[in-house]
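Hi there,

I know you've been waiting on this one. I reran it after we fixed the sequence typo, so this is the corrected version. Both the input and the resulting structure follow.
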Amino acid sequence: MTSIRRWLLGWLIFGLAAASLVAAYGIFHTARVEAGELFDYELRTVALSLPSGVASGGSRESQTPDFGDLADDRIVIDIWNRAGELIYHPAQSPVLPRLAPGFDTVERGGAHWRTFGVQQAGRYVQVAQPVSVREDLALQLALHTLWPLAILVPITIVLVLLVVARGLAPIGSLSRTLSTRSIDSLEPLRLDGSVPVEIRPLVEALNDLLQRLSTATHAQRTFIADAAHELRSPLAALKLQIQAASRDGSLKGEGQTLERVEGRVNRMIHLVQQLLTLAREDAHLLTTMVPMSLRRTAEQVVGDLSLVAETRSIDLGLECEASADASDAYTVLAEPHGMSVLLNNLVNNAIRHTPPGGRVDVVLRRSAGHVGLDVVDTGPGIPESEIERVFDRFYRGEEARGEGSGLGLAIVSRIAGRHRVELSLRNNVGATGLTVSLSGFTAGEVTGSA
Protein backbone atom coordinates (compact mmCIF):
# COMPACT_ATOMS: atom_id res chain seq x y z
CA MET A 1 0.00 0.00 0.00
CA THR A 2 1.38 3.40 -1.03
CA SER A 3 2.00 5.80 1.85
CA ILE A 4 2.32 9.54 1.20
CA ARG A 5 4.16 9.97 4.50
CA ARG A 6 6.73 7.26 3.74
CA TRP A 7 7.12 8.55 0.17
CA LEU A 8 7.75 12.11 1.33
CA LEU A 9 10.11 11.10 4.13
CA GLY A 10 12.01 8.66 1.91
CA TRP A 11 12.68 11.11 -0.87
CA LEU A 12 13.36 14.07 1.41
CA ILE A 13 15.81 12.14 3.59
CA PHE A 14 17.44 10.51 0.55
CA GLY A 15 17.79 13.89 -1.16
CA LEU A 16 19.19 15.44 2.00
CA ALA A 17 21.67 12.60 2.46
CA ALA A 18 22.84 12.78 -1.18
CA ALA A 19 23.19 16.57 -1.03
CA SER A 20 25.06 16.29 2.27
CA LEU A 21 27.52 13.75 0.82
CA VAL A 22 28.20 15.97 -2.19
CA ALA A 23 28.61 19.00 0.05
CA ALA A 24 30.89 17.07 2.42
CA TYR A 25 33.10 15.93 -0.46
CA GLY A 26 33.29 19.47 -1.83
CA ILE A 27 34.10 20.94 1.56
CA PHE A 28 36.67 18.25 2.30
CA HIS A 29 38.41 18.59 -1.07
CA THR A 30 38.44 22.39 -0.89
CA ALA A 31 39.77 22.31 2.66
CA ARG A 32 42.64 19.99 1.67
CA VAL A 33 43.58 22.14 -1.30
CA GLU A 34 43.51 25.28 0.81
CA ALA A 35 45.50 23.54 3.53
CA GLY A 36 48.17 22.64 0.96
CA GLU A 37 48.32 26.26 -0.16
CA LEU A 38 48.57 27.34 3.47
CA PHE A 39 51.54 25.01 4.09
CA ASP A 40 53.24 26.28 0.94
CA TYR A 41 52.76 29.79 2.27
CA GLU A 42 54.29 28.64 5.56
CA LEU A 43 57.38 27.28 3.74
CA ARG A 44 57.80 30.51 1.79
CA THR A 45 57.35 32.64 4.91
CA VAL A 46 59.96 30.62 6.84
CA ALA A 47 62.42 30.87 4.00
CA LEU A 48 62.01 34.61 3.54
CA SER A 49 62.01 35.46 7.23
CA LEU A 50 64.93 33.29 8.25
CA PRO A 51 67.44 35.37 10.31
CA SER A 52 70.88 35.88 8.87
CA GLY A 53 72.54 34.51 12.00
CA VAL A 54 71.14 31.00 11.65
CA ALA A 55 74.24 29.76 9.81
CA SER A 56 76.75 31.61 12.00
CA GLY A 57 79.37 29.35 13.40
CA GLY A 58 80.02 27.58 10.13
CA SER A 59 78.93 24.18 11.43
CA ARG A 60 77.42 22.07 8.68
CA GLU A 61 75.60 19.78 11.15
CA SER A 62 74.28 22.51 13.43
CA GLN A 63 71.63 21.98 16.01
CA THR A 64 68.22 23.24 14.97
CA PRO A 65 67.51 26.56 16.65
CA ASP A 66 64.27 27.21 18.40
CA PHE A 67 61.66 27.94 15.71
CA GLY A 68 58.70 27.57 18.04
CA ASP A 69 55.78 25.61 16.48
CA LEU A 70 57.69 25.00 13.27
CA ALA A 71 59.31 21.95 14.85
CA ASP A 72 55.91 20.29 15.05
CA ASP A 73 55.60 20.58 11.27
CA ARG A 74 59.03 18.86 10.76
CA ILE A 75 60.41 21.67 8.60
CA VAL A 76 63.98 21.13 7.42
CA ILE A 77 66.10 24.22 6.62
CA ASP A 78 69.17 24.00 4.42
CA ILE A 79 71.48 26.98 3.69
CA TRP A 80 74.23 27.18 1.05
CA ASN A 81 76.81 29.95 0.83
CA ARG A 82 77.72 31.93 -2.22
CA ALA A 83 80.27 29.30 -3.19
CA GLY A 84 77.64 26.58 -3.19
CA GLU A 85 78.76 24.92 0.03
CA LEU A 86 76.15 23.61 2.49
CA ILE A 87 76.81 25.69 5.57
CA TYR A 88 73.68 24.79 7.58
CA HIS A 89 71.71 21.56 7.93
CA PRO A 90 69.72 20.26 10.94
CA ALA A 91 71.07 17.22 12.65
CA GLN A 92 69.38 13.85 12.06
CA SER A 93 67.56 15.11 8.95
CA PRO A 94 68.03 13.70 5.44
CA VAL A 95 70.22 15.77 3.11
CA LEU A 96 68.18 17.00 0.19
CA PRO A 97 69.76 18.16 -3.06
CA ARG A 98 69.79 21.81 -3.88
CA LEU A 99 66.84 22.48 -6.14
CA ALA A 100 65.88 25.39 -8.35
CA PRO A 101 64.27 28.40 -6.68
CA GLY A 102 60.53 28.14 -6.05
CA PHE A 103 58.33 25.20 -5.11
CA ASP A 104 59.23 21.64 -5.98
CA THR A 105 58.62 18.04 -4.86
CA VAL A 106 61.45 15.53 -4.46
CA GLU A 107 61.77 11.95 -3.27
CA ARG A 108 64.49 11.01 -0.87
CA GLY A 109 64.80 7.96 1.39
CA GLY A 110 61.43 6.53 0.32
CA ALA A 111 59.60 9.72 1.29
CA HIS A 112 58.36 12.70 -0.68
CA TRP A 113 59.34 16.22 0.34
CA ARG A 114 57.85 19.55 -0.58
CA THR A 115 60.53 22.22 -0.97
CA PHE A 116 60.83 25.94 -1.48
CA GLY A 117 64.09 27.64 -2.38
CA VAL A 118 65.03 31.31 -2.55
CA GLN A 119 68.28 33.08 -3.45
CA GLN A 120 69.21 35.73 -0.91
CA ALA A 121 72.17 38.04 -0.57
CA GLY A 122 75.26 35.89 0.04
CA ARG A 123 73.29 32.61 0.55
CA TYR A 124 70.72 30.20 -0.86
CA VAL A 125 67.94 29.08 1.54
CA GLN A 126 65.87 25.95 0.94
CA VAL A 127 63.04 24.92 3.25
CA ALA A 128 61.52 21.40 3.01
CA GLN A 129 58.69 19.52 4.67
CA PRO A 130 57.56 15.86 4.37
CA VAL A 131 54.48 15.47 2.15
CA SER A 132 53.06 12.91 4.61
CA VAL A 133 53.11 15.48 7.40
CA ARG A 134 51.41 18.01 5.15
CA GLU A 135 48.71 15.48 4.22
CA ASP A 136 48.09 14.50 7.84
CA LEU A 137 47.75 18.11 8.90
CA ALA A 138 45.56 18.90 5.87
CA LEU A 139 43.35 15.89 6.65
CA GLN A 140 42.87 17.03 10.24
CA LEU A 141 42.06 20.54 9.11
CA ALA A 142 39.58 19.26 6.49
CA LEU A 143 37.85 16.99 9.02
CA HIS A 144 37.50 19.90 11.41
CA THR A 145 35.55 21.77 8.74
CA LEU A 146 32.99 18.94 8.50
CA TRP A 147 31.67 18.89 12.07
CA PRO A 148 29.01 21.59 11.48
CA LEU A 149 27.65 19.49 8.62
CA ALA A 150 27.62 16.38 10.84
CA ILE A 151 25.45 18.26 13.35
CA LEU A 152 23.28 19.90 10.70
CA VAL A 153 22.21 16.65 8.98
CA PRO A 154 20.55 14.93 12.02
CA ILE A 155 18.86 18.18 13.03
CA THR A 156 17.53 18.63 9.50
CA ILE A 157 16.20 15.04 9.44
CA VAL A 158 14.36 15.62 12.72
CA LEU A 159 12.91 18.85 11.32
CA VAL A 160 11.80 17.00 8.17
CA LEU A 161 10.04 14.36 10.29
CA LEU A 162 8.28 17.02 12.34
CA VAL A 163 7.30 19.13 9.34
CA VAL A 164 5.93 16.15 7.38
CA ALA A 165 3.99 14.92 10.41
CA ARG A 166 2.60 18.41 10.96
CA GLY A 167 1.75 18.82 7.28
CA LEU A 168 -0.14 15.51 7.13
CA ALA A 169 -1.92 16.06 10.47
CA PRO A 170 -5.11 17.44 8.81
CA ILE A 171 -5.46 14.22 6.81
CA GLY A 172 -5.17 12.17 10.00
CA SER A 173 -7.71 14.42 11.71
CA LEU A 174 -10.10 14.00 8.78
CA SER A 175 -9.67 10.21 8.92
CA ARG A 176 -10.37 10.12 12.67
CA THR A 177 -13.45 12.31 12.23
CA LEU A 178 -14.87 9.96 9.59
CA SER A 179 -13.97 6.77 11.50
CA THR A 180 -15.69 7.94 14.70
CA ARG A 181 -18.88 8.95 12.94
CA SER A 182 -22.04 6.95 13.38
CA ILE A 183 -23.23 4.94 10.40
CA ASP A 184 -26.34 7.10 10.34
CA SER A 185 -24.50 10.42 10.47
CA LEU A 186 -24.54 11.96 7.00
CA GLU A 187 -24.04 15.59 7.96
CA PRO A 188 -21.41 17.44 5.90
CA LEU A 189 -17.93 17.88 7.27
CA ARG A 190 -17.18 21.28 8.75
CA LEU A 191 -15.08 23.58 6.58
CA ASP A 192 -13.23 26.31 8.45
CA GLY A 193 -9.91 28.09 8.43
CA SER A 194 -8.10 25.05 9.87
CA VAL A 195 -8.69 23.00 6.70
CA PRO A 196 -5.67 23.43 4.37
CA VAL A 197 -6.28 24.61 0.82
CA GLU A 198 -4.91 21.36 -0.60
CA ILE A 199 -7.39 19.22 1.36
CA ARG A 200 -10.40 21.48 0.81
CA PRO A 201 -11.32 19.88 -2.58
CA LEU A 202 -11.27 16.44 -0.92
CA VAL A 203 -13.52 17.65 1.92
CA GLU A 204 -15.89 19.28 -0.56
CA ALA A 205 -16.07 16.07 -2.61
CA LEU A 206 -16.80 14.07 0.56
CA ASN A 207 -19.52 16.53 1.55
CA ASP A 208 -21.07 16.20 -1.90
CA LEU A 209 -21.00 12.40 -1.58
CA LEU A 210 -22.55 12.56 1.91
CA GLN A 211 -25.27 14.85 0.59
CA ARG A 212 -26.11 12.44 -2.22
CA LEU A 213 -26.10 9.49 0.19
CA SER A 214 -28.39 11.39 2.55
CA THR A 215 -30.79 12.17 -0.29
CA ALA A 216 -30.81 8.56 -1.48
CA THR A 217 -31.29 7.21 2.05
CA HIS A 218 -34.09 9.65 2.75
CA ALA A 219 -35.81 8.69 -0.51
CA GLN A 220 -35.54 5.00 0.38
CA ARG A 221 -36.96 5.52 3.86
CA THR A 222 -39.74 7.70 2.52
CA PHE A 223 -40.64 5.08 -0.08
CA ILE A 224 -40.78 2.26 2.49
CA ALA A 225 -42.83 4.35 4.90
CA ASP A 226 -45.25 5.53 2.21
CA ALA A 227 -45.61 2.04 0.74
CA ALA A 228 -46.25 0.50 4.15
CA HIS A 229 -48.74 3.22 5.03
CA GLU A 230 -50.58 2.88 1.72
CA LEU A 231 -50.73 -0.91 1.99
CA ARG A 232 -51.90 -1.01 5.59
CA SER A 233 -55.29 0.65 4.97
CA PRO A 234 -56.49 -1.52 2.02
CA LEU A 235 -55.33 -4.68 3.78
CA ALA A 236 -57.23 -3.76 6.91
CA ALA A 237 -60.32 -3.01 4.78
CA LEU A 238 -59.91 -6.36 2.98
CA LYS A 239 -59.80 -8.21 6.28
CA LEU A 240 -62.97 -6.48 7.49
CA GLN A 241 -64.74 -7.30 4.24
CA ILE A 242 -63.74 -10.96 4.49
CA GLN A 243 -64.99 -11.14 8.08
CA ALA A 244 -68.27 -9.36 7.20
CA ALA A 245 -68.88 -11.57 4.15
CA SER A 246 -68.16 -14.67 6.20
CA ARG A 247 -70.69 -13.65 8.86
CA ASP A 248 -73.55 -12.76 6.50
CA GLY A 249 -73.02 -15.80 4.29
CA SER A 250 -72.19 -13.90 1.11
CA LEU A 251 -68.75 -15.51 0.98
CA LYS A 252 -69.04 -19.18 0.09
CA GLY A 253 -66.27 -21.64 0.70
CA GLU A 254 -64.86 -24.20 3.10
CA GLY A 255 -64.02 -23.11 6.61
CA GLN A 256 -60.37 -24.07 6.25
CA THR A 257 -60.09 -22.07 3.05
CA LEU A 258 -61.51 -18.99 4.72
CA GLU A 259 -59.16 -19.45 7.66
CA ARG A 260 -56.16 -19.71 5.33
CA VAL A 261 -57.24 -16.58 3.45
CA GLU A 262 -57.71 -14.69 6.69
CA GLY A 263 -54.35 -15.98 7.95
CA ARG A 264 -52.62 -14.76 4.80
CA VAL A 265 -54.24 -11.36 5.16
CA ASN A 266 -53.22 -11.19 8.83
CA ARG A 267 -49.63 -12.04 7.88
CA MET A 268 -49.58 -9.33 5.21
CA ILE A 269 -50.99 -6.82 7.68
CA HIS A 270 -48.31 -7.78 10.22
CA LEU A 271 -45.59 -7.51 7.56
CA VAL A 272 -46.76 -4.06 6.50
CA GLN A 273 -46.90 -2.95 10.14
CA GLN A 274 -43.34 -4.21 10.71
CA LEU A 275 -42.13 -2.46 7.56
CA LEU A 276 -43.67 0.76 8.75
CA THR A 277 -42.04 0.35 12.17
CA LEU A 278 -38.68 -0.44 10.62
CA ALA A 279 -38.91 2.61 8.34
CA ARG A 280 -39.66 4.81 11.32
CA GLU A 281 -36.73 3.38 13.25
CA ASP A 282 -34.39 3.94 10.30
CA ALA A 283 -35.55 7.53 10.15
CA HIS A 284 -34.47 8.13 13.78
CA LEU A 285 -30.86 9.19 13.26
CA LEU A 286 -30.60 10.62 16.77
CA THR A 287 -32.07 9.25 19.99
CA THR A 288 -33.22 11.61 22.72
CA MET A 289 -32.54 9.88 26.03
CA VAL A 290 -34.83 10.72 28.94
CA PRO A 291 -35.36 9.01 32.29
CA MET A 292 -38.14 6.45 31.95
CA SER A 293 -39.51 3.55 33.94
CA LEU A 294 -38.56 0.27 32.28
CA ARG A 295 -40.88 -1.54 34.70
CA ARG A 296 -43.83 0.62 33.69
CA THR A 297 -43.17 -0.04 29.99
CA ALA A 298 -42.81 -3.78 30.59
CA GLU A 299 -46.08 -3.88 32.55
CA GLN A 300 -47.86 -2.07 29.73
CA VAL A 301 -46.50 -4.44 27.04
CA VAL A 302 -47.33 -7.52 29.10
CA GLY A 303 -50.85 -6.17 29.68
CA ASP A 304 -51.38 -5.41 25.98
CA LEU A 305 -50.26 -8.88 24.87
CA SER A 306 -51.85 -10.87 27.69
CA LEU A 307 -54.99 -11.54 25.65
CA VAL A 308 -52.90 -12.86 22.75
CA ALA A 309 -51.03 -15.12 25.17
CA GLU A 310 -54.28 -16.42 26.68
CA THR A 311 -55.68 -17.37 23.29
CA ARG A 312 -52.58 -19.52 22.76
CA SER A 313 -52.65 -20.91 26.35
CA ILE A 314 -49.29 -19.31 27.17
CA ASP A 315 -48.40 -18.10 30.64
CA LEU A 316 -47.09 -14.52 30.22
CA GLY A 317 -45.57 -12.82 33.26
CA LEU A 318 -43.22 -10.14 34.57
CA GLU A 319 -40.47 -10.72 37.14
CA CYS A 320 -38.27 -8.17 38.93
CA GLU A 321 -34.91 -9.36 40.23
CA ALA A 322 -32.78 -7.45 42.77
CA SER A 323 -35.35 -4.67 43.04
CA ALA A 324 -34.68 -1.96 45.61
CA ASP A 325 -38.25 -2.15 46.93
CA ALA A 326 -41.76 -3.01 45.79
CA SER A 327 -42.10 0.34 44.02
CA ASP A 328 -38.75 0.12 42.20
CA ALA A 329 -39.39 1.59 38.74
CA TYR A 330 -36.14 0.31 37.17
CA THR A 331 -35.48 3.78 35.79
CA VAL A 332 -33.18 4.00 32.77
CA LEU A 333 -32.11 6.64 30.27
CA ALA A 334 -33.85 5.67 27.03
CA GLU A 335 -36.32 6.75 24.38
CA PRO A 336 -39.80 5.69 25.61
CA HIS A 337 -41.42 4.94 22.25
CA GLY A 338 -38.43 2.96 21.05
CA MET A 339 -38.33 0.86 24.21
CA SER A 340 -42.05 0.17 23.91
CA VAL A 341 -41.57 -1.02 20.31
CA LEU A 342 -38.54 -3.12 21.33
CA LEU A 343 -40.32 -4.89 24.20
CA ASN A 344 -43.48 -5.38 22.15
CA ASN A 345 -41.50 -7.08 19.37
CA LEU A 346 -39.55 -9.29 21.76
CA VAL A 347 -42.60 -10.46 23.72
CA ASN A 348 -44.76 -10.85 20.58
CA ASN A 349 -41.97 -12.83 18.90
CA ALA A 350 -41.65 -15.10 21.96
CA ILE A 351 -45.41 -15.73 22.04
CA ARG A 352 -45.51 -16.57 18.32
CA HIS A 353 -42.74 -19.16 18.65
CA THR A 354 -43.82 -20.75 21.94
CA PRO A 355 -46.12 -23.77 21.65
CA PRO A 356 -49.47 -23.83 23.54
CA GLY A 357 -49.06 -24.49 27.25
CA GLY A 358 -45.66 -22.82 27.29
CA ARG A 359 -44.36 -19.86 29.26
CA VAL A 360 -42.96 -16.41 28.43
CA ASP A 361 -41.36 -14.27 31.14
CA VAL A 362 -40.06 -10.70 31.04
CA VAL A 363 -37.32 -10.41 33.68
CA LEU A 364 -35.95 -7.06 34.89
CA ARG A 365 -32.59 -7.13 36.66
CA ARG A 366 -29.92 -4.90 38.19
CA SER A 367 -26.15 -5.34 38.28
CA ALA A 368 -23.26 -2.95 39.00
CA GLY A 369 -25.27 0.22 38.54
CA HIS A 370 -26.81 -0.92 35.25
CA VAL A 371 -30.26 -2.23 34.41
CA GLY A 372 -31.01 -5.09 32.03
CA LEU A 373 -33.91 -7.22 30.91
CA ASP A 374 -34.43 -10.75 29.63
CA VAL A 375 -37.29 -12.22 27.64
CA VAL A 376 -37.34 -15.96 28.34
CA ASP A 377 -39.60 -18.43 26.52
CA THR A 378 -40.05 -22.20 26.47
CA GLY A 379 -40.18 -22.51 22.68
CA PRO A 380 -37.94 -24.63 20.47
CA GLY A 381 -35.03 -22.19 20.60
CA ILE A 382 -32.72 -21.40 17.69
CA PRO A 383 -30.02 -23.65 16.21
CA GLU A 384 -26.58 -22.39 17.17
CA SER A 385 -25.65 -22.01 13.50
CA GLU A 386 -28.48 -19.53 12.97
CA ILE A 387 -28.16 -17.32 16.08
CA GLU A 388 -25.92 -14.79 14.29
CA ARG A 389 -28.30 -14.54 11.32
CA VAL A 390 -31.64 -14.03 13.04
CA PHE A 391 -30.99 -10.27 13.25
CA ASP A 392 -30.91 -10.03 9.45
CA ARG A 393 -33.98 -8.54 7.85
CA PHE A 394 -36.54 -11.02 6.49
CA TYR A 395 -34.54 -13.99 7.78
CA ARG A 396 -36.58 -16.87 9.18
CA GLY A 397 -34.95 -20.09 10.27
CA GLU A 398 -35.86 -23.42 8.80
CA GLU A 399 -37.53 -24.50 12.05
CA ALA A 400 -39.28 -21.18 12.71
CA ARG A 401 -42.94 -21.36 13.74
CA GLY A 402 -45.75 -18.84 13.69
CA GLU A 403 -46.64 -16.16 11.18
CA GLY A 404 -43.61 -13.95 11.61
CA SER A 405 -42.23 -11.60 8.97
CA GLY A 406 -38.53 -11.93 9.77
CA LEU A 407 -38.32 -8.27 10.80
CA GLY A 408 -39.03 -8.41 14.55
CA LEU A 409 -35.46 -9.07 15.72
CA ALA A 410 -34.08 -6.73 13.04
CA ILE A 411 -36.17 -3.93 14.55
CA VAL A 412 -35.03 -4.90 18.04
CA SER A 413 -31.38 -4.85 16.92
CA ARG A 414 -31.87 -1.43 15.33
CA ILE A 415 -33.38 0.07 18.50
CA ALA A 416 -30.76 -1.55 20.74
CA GLY A 417 -28.01 -0.11 18.56
CA ARG A 418 -29.49 3.38 18.87
CA HIS A 419 -29.54 3.01 22.66
CA ARG A 420 -26.01 1.54 22.70
CA VAL A 421 -27.03 -1.48 24.76
CA GLU A 422 -25.77 -5.03 24.31
CA LEU A 423 -28.22 -7.42 22.65
CA SER A 424 -27.59 -11.17 22.85
CA LEU A 425 -29.45 -14.43 22.26
CA ARG A 426 -28.80 -17.78 23.88
CA ASN A 427 -30.59 -21.08 24.14
CA ASN A 428 -31.66 -22.01 27.64
CA VAL A 429 -29.32 -24.39 29.43
CA GLY A 430 -30.96 -27.57 30.69
CA ALA A 431 -34.37 -26.62 29.25
CA THR A 432 -36.03 -25.77 25.99
CA GLY A 433 -36.50 -22.22 24.86
CA LEU A 434 -34.60 -19.05 24.13
CA THR A 435 -33.41 -16.09 26.22
CA VAL A 436 -33.02 -12.65 24.65
CA SER A 437 -30.94 -10.34 26.86
CA LEU A 438 -30.48 -6.58 26.81
CA SER A 439 -27.66 -5.29 29.03
CA GLY A 440 -26.04 -1.96 29.71
CA PHE A 441 -28.94 0.42 30.25
CA THR A 442 -27.76 3.42 32.22
CA ALA A 443 -29.76 3.83 35.41
CA GLY A 444 -31.41 7.23 35.88
CA GLU A 445 -33.91 9.08 38.01
CA VAL A 446 -37.42 9.81 36.91
CA THR A 447 -38.46 13.42 37.25
CA GLY A 448 -42.20 13.59 37.59
CA SER A 449 -44.52 10.67 36.99
CA ALA A 450 -43.32 7.47 35.39
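Quick highlight: The first strand starts at residue 76 and ends at 81.

Best,
R. S.
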